[in-house]
Amino acid sequence: MKKKLNKIILALSILLAFSVGLFIFDAVYSEIEEEEIVTIQDTAAPKPAAKIEFGINRDSFQVVEGIIKPNQFLANLLLPHNIDYVTIDRLAKKSKAVFDVRRLAAGKEYTIFKSKDSLEKAQYFVYQPNAIDYVVYELSDSIEIKRGQKEVEVRIKSVAGVIESSLYETLQEQQSSPALAVKLADIFAWSIDFYRIQKGDWFKAIYEVQYVDEEAIGTGRILAVEFSHFDEPYLGIYFEQEGKGDYFDEEANSLRKAFLKSPLKFSRLSSRYTMRRFHPVQKRWKAHLGTDYAAPTGTPIMSTGDGVVIASSYTRGNGKYVKVKHNSAYTTQYLHMSRRNAKVGQRVKQGDIIGYVGSTGLATGPHVCYRFWKNGKQVDHLKEDFPAAEPIKAEHLEDFKKELKKWGNSLDSLQLEADRKQGLASLK
Q1: What gap in Å lies between CA 275 and CA 285, rounded to an integer?
Q2: Cβ 321 vs Cβ 309: under 8 Å
Q3: Residues 368 and 404 in one domain
Q4: What is this structure's pTM?
Q5: CATH no. for residue 302?
Q6: Which residues lie below 8 Å from residue 290, measured CB to CB, with a gap of 6+?
């Protein structure tokens, strides 16, 4: 009886051990299986993001890109992609209110999105008149036309240089856009004679560069600039007050003055105001009550200040000329034009093009003779000290001081090549 009881106890023990082992196996297997599932979910590759261009899913179409050739019109572009003349005519008529297809220009980029089926029919035509703007022509039954703009990224860059020959060449050597030369001339047009820049003048500038699709497309605003001319420093800080931007010096005065220094952006001063000059045509000594700026024929001539045109005519001596009355005290005159671009009674703004350089009248070569009257008397405008334009208003002064400090420190941190070499020499 005892042996039988032992056998029963042994059997129950074996059965219990087997059950416990089976339970442990199931639990472990469940954990392994659960881990494997989690692992599979974690390593699943994400779907690639759709490539959207001009608001269109590029991956859904065959894409054709090109440059418009001379004498190539819309029909030349769309007919090879199964768009018939009737559709092209409807598109041309409907597009006039948004962007007239007759304005498609040679050298500009276009993109055609075609269906991926056997028809390969164009679904969209996109024209890019410049690096930022584009026009989408949807070639559906209703034909839709809309304008758009690419995202523009603005990056801040800086440049510093010492002028050896010209500002233009110095900027090129610094691998900066030569277009900055024009912007600098505009900023300091009331203070610096850019046609008299000399070797040893230097500049530092912080400016914006616009990028589209990681490609630089042009320069934006100059935010801060320092220019040394004849060892005299000039500072310009860009600041906006009441929605209008301008350039100001360290004293919060505007760099704009009543008149531009010169009626031409870039030129050569060929003859100064003097009471005694040998006239090259008349071959005699006489007063020259103006300042001559030599430049190629056709160079635009600007009004040096706001005013009203009081004369636009021709005389044997002056040739074609324009005269502008600015206020009760000041009048200016521009002689020897090849073509006039202003009429009597016309109101002009500072910088407006009122004519073009020529050699009409008593002139030996293309130039503009710029004459300046103050209180009815002709004077040398280069010796006049004109008052500055409106300064920073009192309520914006603290904000301007913060900008002045920020950009002033940034300009100070820029090293000129001469400074850099001197610093390296001191370390040796």
Answers
A1: 9
A2: no
A3: no
A4: 0.66
A5: 2.70.70.10
A6: 273, 333, 335, 369, 370, 371, 372, 378
